[in-house]
Here is the input.
Amino acid sequence: MKRYAYNSQLAESIWWNLLLMTIGSLLMTICIEGVAAPHDFLAGGVMGVALLTAYWTDSLTPLIWYGLLCLPIYLGGWFFVGRRFLLYTTYGTLCTTLFGIFLNIELPIVNEIYAAVVSGVLHGAACGIMLRTLGSSGGTDIIAVLLKQRWNIGIGEFNFAFNALLFLLGAFHLSPDLIVASMLMMFISSNALEYVLGMFNRRKMVLIISDHGEEICEVILVTERFGATMLRGKGAYSGSDREILLTVTNNVALKRLENLVFGIDPHALFIVGNTSYVSGGQFARRNY
Here is the structure.
């Protein structure tokens, strides 16, 4: 059980979270400064709203509009999402800004479609890594996290819907080609974000139906240290009682677990299913 406690402590570690936030901020900077900006793609989220607002009003600069628009979002995040979450998010925003000031990165990508693909992957990976911490990349991510908590709306789904509406409004100021390329970038970004978010939570759910369920359970707890739940079942054809074990493992230990089960009961039924998300118990749970 020490291994699971260690993983939980790592997820809560300040230095680990700051490291991931820094890596995510660097990838975000490479995306914006190295690919998106040189190709004049419309930014998503609050920055995109700030740009369009500056275009329409012709009064304040986009950065001033960005600060004004972020202020109520950050205040809402302070009260409804969590103060720790907001502090980490602020750190990530500062890192992205500083990287943008001191780093001069431009990837040599000429083709607009290739640039949309690369920037979408970088953007989604950056947001996903930052959301894997106790913070986020800021802006609409705070709203997305709040919606995820309250109504289980996917973060990538919200970001894509928000940016789709934003790009429709931006069509009045940008060429159709740029709008399509920007939409492609954000579509790829939303899928990359969801993939990164679920990458460390994907596990294998295993059902073991055997006449030696208690023996298998004891061996699992001793050798593999997995959590296991014993269920009671009944064979539909034979009418005899069956012991069903439910456990969650990963790809690395799956084959070892299978060999363990059939070493005890060659006639056992070993069922494996994919899970998209596992939280709680011996697995780390995110607390904002």
Summary: The longest helix spans residues 176-199. The chain has a mean pLDDT of 77. The longest strand covers residues 241-249.
